[in-house]
Amino acid sequence: MDKSKITETEISIDKLIAQDRDELARFVEVYSPRIYRLAMKILNNEQDAEDVLQETFIKAIHAISGFEGRSSLSTWLYRIATNEALMLLRRHSPGTVSIDTPAEEDEEDQEALQIVDWSNQPEVKLSAKEVRLQINEAVSRLPLGQREVFALREIEGLSVKETAEILNVSESVVKTRLLRARMRLRQVLNDYFIERQKREVTDD
Amino acid sequence: MTENGDCCDYCAMISEFIDGELPPDLCALLEEHLASCDNCTIVLNTMKKTIELYREDEGIEDLPEGVKRRLFTTLSLSDYLPK
Question: How far is B5 from chain A (nearest CA, A)?
Answer without folding.
Answer: 9
